[in-house]
Specification:
Blueprint lengths: L1 H14 L2 H14 L12 H18 L2 H12 L6 H17 L2 H8 L16 H18 L15 H38 L2 H13 L6 H9 L7 H5 L18 H19 L5 H18 L3 H7 L4 H20 L12 H6 L12 H23 L11 H5 L10 H11 L6 E6 L3 E6 L7 H5 L5 E6 L2 E5 L4 H12 L1
Antiparallel strand pairs: 1-2, 2-4, 3-4
C-alpha cells in the first residue's frame, strides 16, 4: 500500500503542470474562442495571439504521458535525482517506438490497417507510468553499480540508462502480447460507464472520492480525463482532441464544481458550528484557509483529511453527495472543465472553451448545493455524533498546549512541534512530501504523540502503517517540510 501511495504522490508532479496549460488555453479561448483544432482561422493580431496561447497550452496536455513518465521516474526514485527521469524517458521512447503501429506492422509483416488498434494508443498515461516505474526501479537498483576498470566509465549512474534500455526491451515483448488484452478490458470498462450516461458519471464521482485516502484516484481519473479508454474528457473539452460532443463532453468534470467550490466550504462551516465552544477558534483557524483553497483552486485534501479518519461515515456521505452532484450536472445542459481541479480559477478560464455550456449556472447550483451540504453535514454530525474537528473527547487544555497555527506563517515553530510529537529527530528515518501532506517513516511508533502533532494546527494525522505517519499540513506543506528537514539534520 505504501508503494501505491508513493506512486500517487509521484503523479502529482506532472499533474501540477496542468494549471499552466489551463491558464494559457483559457486566456486564448477568451480572446478568440473560434480558434479550435480544425475550426476557425487565425486572422488579425488578436487571433494570432489566441492561437499562439492555445497551441502553447496544448503542448502540455498533449504530452501528458511523457510528463507522467518523467514525474514517476523522479518521484519513485530513492533520492529524486535527475538520472531517474532520464532513464524513464529512455524507457518511454523505446516502448512507444517498438510498439507503435508502424513498427508492429513491420514486425508482423502486415499492413498498418490490420494492426490491432490498441497499438495506436500505446502512447498513453498508463505506459508513461510504466516507463517511469522502470526508470525509477533501475535507478534505485543500479545507481551504485561498480564495473571492472575497463568498463569503469559506465559505472554508477551511467549504467542506469543501459539497464533501463534492456529492461524496456523485455517489457516491450511482454506488452506486445499483453497490451491488446489490457486495452480491451479498459475500453470495455469505459464503455460500461459511458453507457450509463449521467449515472455512470455519478459512479465515477463516488469512487473518485473514496479512493482519495489511498491516493489511487489518479488511476481512475486517467481513464476518464485522458485518452486511455477513448473518453479523454479534458482533451476533448478543450479542443485538443477530436470527438467532443456538445452537451456530453465535460460530464466527468462539471459535477465537481458545485462540490469543490461550494459543498466542501459549506461542510467546513457546518463542522465549525458543530464544534465545542472552547474549540471553535481552533477549528476556524484550521478550516478558513482550507475552504478558500477549495473554492479558488479545487484542492480539497486539507478539508477531506481533516474529517475522513475522524468520521469515516461522514466521508462516505461526502462521496455520495459528490456522486449526486455529478449525476445532476450530467443531466443538465451545463458543462465546465478544468486542467487542474474544479475551483473558481478553472471555472472562470473554461467559460469560452469549445464545449463549455451554460457554465454560469454552476454558481446558483453550487450555492444551493452548498446549502444541502451544510444541512446534511450539520444533521449527520449531531445524529451520529461524528467526532469531527472540535468535537473530539480530548481535553481542551491538552490540545491547546503550545498551539501554533499555520496562519502565523511560523513554519519553524510548526515543524518543531510536529517533530517533538513524532519523538524527535532520532525517531525519523524518512521524510517526504506530497501536495498537502508530510509523509514520514519512523523507527518507533510508540513515541508518536498525535495530540502534540495536532497542536501545531495541522489538519490531521494519518497512520497508514506501523512505521508510517502522514501529517496533513495543507498547501503550505513545502515550507513546513523545509524547516522540518533542517531540524532533523
Amino acid at each position: 500500500m505504501r508503494y501505491l501511495q508513493k506512486l500517487g504522490k509521484s503523479l502529482m508532479l506532472p499533474v501540477a503542470c496542468l494549471p499552466a496549460a489551463g491558464i494559457l488555453m483559457g486566456i486564448g479561448y477568451w480572446i478568440a474562442p473560434s480558434i479550435i483544432s480544425g475550426q476557425g482561422e487565425a486572422t488579425g493580431i488578436w487571433s494570432i495571439i489566441a492561437a499562439f496561447l492555445i497551441k502553447a497550452g496544448a503542448a502540455i496536455i498533449d504530452n501528458m504521458p511523457i510528463l507522467f513518465a518523467v514525474g514517476v521516474g523522479i518521484g519513485m526514485s530513492d533520492d529524486q535525482e535527475g538520472t531517474s527521469a532520464l532513464a524513464a524517458l529512455v524507457s518511454w521512447l523505446m516502448i512507444t517506438t517498438i510498439l507503435s503501429t508502424g513498427t508492429v506492422a513491420l514486425l508482423m509483416k502486415i499492413d498498418a490497417s490490420q494492426v490491432n488498434p490498441a497499438f495506436g494508443k500505446i502512447a498513453n498515461p498508463c505506459i508513461g507510468i510504466i516507463s517511469g516505474l522502470i526508470g525509477a526501479n533501475c535507478y534505485n537498483k543500479f545507481k551504485s553499480t561498480r564495473l571492472p576498470d575497463a568498463l569503469a566509465f559506465f559505472s554508477g549512474k551511467r549504467s542506469v540508462a543501459i539497464v533501463t534500455a534492456l529492461t524496456s526491451l523485455v517489457v516491450s515483448i511482454v506488452l506486445f502480447f499483453v497490451w491488446p488484452a489490457v486495452y480491451s478490458v479498459i475500453v470495455a470498462f469505459g464503455e460500461v460507464i459511458l453507457s450509463l450516461g449521467p449515472v455512470g458519471a455519478g459512479l465515477y464521482g463516488f469512487f473518485n472520492r473514496l479512493l482519495i485516502p489511498l491516493g489511487l484516484h489518479h488511476a481512475l481519473n486517467a481513464v476518464f480525463w485522458f485518452d486511455l479508454a477513448g473518453v479523454n474528457d479534458i482533451g476533448k473539452f478543450w479542443g485538443t482532441a477530436e470527438g467532443g460532443i456538445l452537451g456530453q463532453t465535460g460530464q466527468y468534470m462539471s459535477g465537481f464544481f458545485p462540490v469543490m467550490m461550494f459543498g466542501l466550504p459549506a461542510a467546513t462551516l457546518a463542522m465549525y458550528h458543530s464544534a465545542k465552544p472552547g474549540k471553535k477558534k481552533m477549528v476556524y483557524g484550521l478550516f478558513f484557509s482550507a475552504a478558500l483553497c477549495s473554492f479558488f483552486t479545487g484542492i480539497t485534501e486539507p478539508i477531506e483529511f481533516a474529517f475522513m479518519f475522524l468520521a469515516p461515515g461522514l466521508y462516505v456521505i461526502h462521496a455520495a453527495l459528490t456522486a449526486i452532484s455529478m449525476t445532476i450536472i450530467a443531466l443538465l445542459p451545463v458543462r465546465a472543465g478544468f486542467f487542474f481541479s474544479a475551483g473558481f480559477v478553472d471555472w472562470f478560464l473554461s467559460f469560452r472553451a469549445p464545449f463549455a455550456e451554460n457554465s454560469w449556472l454552476l454558481i446558483p447550483i453550487g450555492v444551493a448545493y452548498g446549502a444541502v451540504y451544510y444541512i446534511i453535514f450539520r444533521v449527520a454530525i449531531r445524529v451520529f455524533n461524528f467526532k469531527t474537528p472540535g468535537r473530539e473527547d480530548d481535553d481542551d487544555d491538552e490540545i491547546n498546549e503550545s498551539k501554533v497555527t499555520l496562519a502565523n506563517n511560523d513554519y519553524t515553530a510548526v515543524a518543531s512541534i510536529i517533530l517533538e510529537g513524532l519523538g524527535g529527530k532520532d525517531n525519523i528515518t524518512s521524510i517526504d512530501t506530497c501536495i498537502t501532506r508530510l509523509r514520514l517513516e519512523i523507527a518507533d511508533y510508540t513515541k508518536v504523540n498525535e495530540k502534540k502533532i495536532k497542536s501545531a494546527g495541522v489538519a490531521g494525522v494519518i497512520r497508514p502503517g506501523k512505521n508510517s505517519v502522514q501529517v496533513v499540513v495543507g498547501t503550505q506543506v513545502q515550507h513546513v517540510a523545509d524547516e522540518f528537514k533542517k531540524l532533523c539534520k
